[in-house]
């Protein structure tokens, strides 16, 4: 695939980081994606290798072991995962989400204790929000973290947890005050190594993203120090979640736009190489019109995304705009993948062709990070 133009928010340092990410992903991840898909998780040592190269927590300050960059560094890593067809390393959760809860709300002691180990890959991060009976309605979670002396005792279960099989650093969204809804929610860290009462259920089989471990987690009287509460005050979890979700949703949009661009590039190449009725498939009017539509969508999506990234880096990205970016780009990602797969004909349905993976991987994008229906509900509140 030809290189995309440098985004408006990039510079030489960010492009050097992109090159490093591309090289690592192409050499250390892409060749193993099929095997990882079969085993439903990546190899644990990949986290350590990524950490050693400085690919983890790139937007966390250097004094906490991070790369000292911005969200732009996170974005190019996500883009290169798409371009190298190596999406299974869950850095967008680990670095872009989990590390920023610690950095944004943790005490100085918590930052010093956890962030360097997240940056090195010693710790693999996950955030446990969703429960078997609770998806987008976070206020209705049942998991409890009740303080008893100098400890929290955690009971409950979580599902659909990204990085759940390998994570040993889990931010658990729990009720520290079960009698309250939003005001009763707190974020409590669970370091799982050799921890009594903690167990993992199934690594869940999904229609796409097969190499990304997604698991069930169970907490049965799990005891952690009271100092594992993110921040210094109970009941702040819902506010913390709401403040961080725009970055999570922007990250989803980054992956969506990269997928749109790659779907287009793969399909243009295929239709120019593939012949039918004595001429390239690209030369049929329907093909040209469909690809013209996709190219237009890709251009609009890129311009919108780049504007959102600039706003986010400058601290100006608001909640409704992040929600717009999340729902629209992921809807377009799914639409584009479908249109492009059609142009591959029967080969598009074969797993050996990248477009088939782009098609199946895309569907979850409209669901996680808040469903697209929730995004529209949020947007409507600001009209």
Question: What's the arrangement of secondary structure elements?
Answer:
Blueprint: H1 12-29, H2 33-39, H3 45-52, H4 71-83, H5 91-105, H6 108-120, E1 125-128, E2 144-148, E3 151-162, E4 169-175, E5 185-191, E6 198-203, E7 214-225, H7 237-273, E8 275-276, E9 279-280, H8 285-313, H9 319-343, H10 354-362, H11 372-380
Parallel strand pairs: 1-4
Antiparallel strand pairs: 2-3, 3-7, 4-5, 6-7, 8-9
Characterization of the model:
By secondary structure, this protein is α+β, with helices and mostly antiparallel strands. It has three domains: 109 residues, Acyl-CoA dehydrogenase/oxidase, N-terminal domain (Butyryl-Coa Dehydrogenase, subunit A, domain 1); 110 residues, Beta Barrel (Butyryl-CoA Dehydrogenase, subunit A, domain 2); 142 residues, Butyryl-CoA Dehydrogenase, subunit A, domain 3 (Up-down Bundle). The protein has eleven helices and nine strands. The protein has a four-stranded antiparallel β-sheet, with no helix packed on it. The chain starts with 11 loop residues before the first helix and ends with a helix.
- Sequence of secondary-structure elements: HHHHHHEEEEEEEHEEHHHH
Let me know the average pLDDT: 96
CATH topology name of the largest domain: Butyryl-CoA Dehydrogenase, subunit A, domain 3
Distance between the termini: 41 Å
Structural class per helix/strand content? alpha+beta
Helix content: 40-55%
Secondary-structure arrangement, i.e. CATH architecture of the largest domain: Up-down Bundle
CATH level 4 superfamily of the largest domain: Butyryl-CoA Dehydrogenase, subunit A, domain 3
What top-tier CATH class of the largest domain fits best?
Mainly Alpha
Please report which band the strand proportion falls in: under 5%, 5-15%, 15-25%, 25-35%, 35-45% or over 45%: 5-15%
């Amino acid at each position: 695939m030809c290189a995309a133009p440098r985004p408006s928010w990039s510079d030489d340092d960010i492009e050097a980081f992109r090159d490093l990410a591309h090289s690592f992903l192409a050499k250390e991840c892409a060749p193993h994606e099929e095997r990882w898909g079969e085993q439903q998780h990546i190899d644990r040592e990949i986290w350590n290798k990524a950490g050693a190269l400085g690919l983890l927590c790139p937007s966390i300050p250097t004094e906490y072991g991070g790369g000292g960059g911005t969200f732009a560094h996170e974005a190019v890593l996500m883009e290169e995962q798409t371009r190298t067809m190596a999406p299974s390393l869950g850095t967008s959760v680990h670095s872009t989400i989990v590390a920023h809860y610690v950095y944004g709300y943790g005490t100085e002691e918590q930052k010093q204790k956890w962030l360097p180990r997240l940056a090195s890959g010693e710790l693999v991060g996950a955030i446990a929000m969703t429960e078997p009976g609770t998806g987008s309605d976070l206020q209705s979670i049942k998991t409890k973290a009740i303080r008893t002396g100098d400890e929290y005792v955690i009971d409950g279960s979580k599902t659909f947890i990204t990085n759940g099989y390998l994570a040993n650093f889990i931010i658990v969204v729990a009720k520290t005050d079960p009698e309250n809804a939003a005001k009763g929610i707190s974020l409590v860290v669970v370091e799982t190594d050799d921890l009594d009462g903690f167990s993992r259920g199934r690594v869940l089989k999904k229609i796409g993203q097969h190499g990304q471990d997604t698991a069930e987690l169970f907490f049965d009287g799990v005891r952690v120090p009271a100092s594992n509460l993110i921040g210094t005050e109970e009941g702040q979890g819902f506010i913390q979640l709401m403040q961080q979700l725009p970055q999570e949703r922007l990250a989803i949009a980054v992956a969506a736009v990269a997928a749109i661009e790659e779907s287009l590039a793969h399909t243009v190449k295929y239709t120019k190489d593939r012949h039918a009725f004595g001429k390239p498939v690209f030369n049929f009017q329907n093909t040209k019109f469909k690809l013209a539509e996709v190219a237009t969508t890709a251009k609009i999506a890129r311009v919108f995304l780049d504007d959102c990234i600039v706003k986010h880096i400058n601290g100006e990205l608001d909640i409704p705009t992040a929600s717009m970016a999340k729902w629209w780009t992921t809807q377009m990602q799914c639409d584009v993948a479908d249109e492009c797969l059609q142009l591959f004909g029967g080969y598009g349905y074969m797993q050996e062709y990248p477009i088939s993976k782009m098609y199946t991987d895309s569907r979850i994008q409209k669901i996680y990070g808040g469903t697209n229906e929730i995004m529209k509900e949020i947007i409507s509140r600001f009209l």
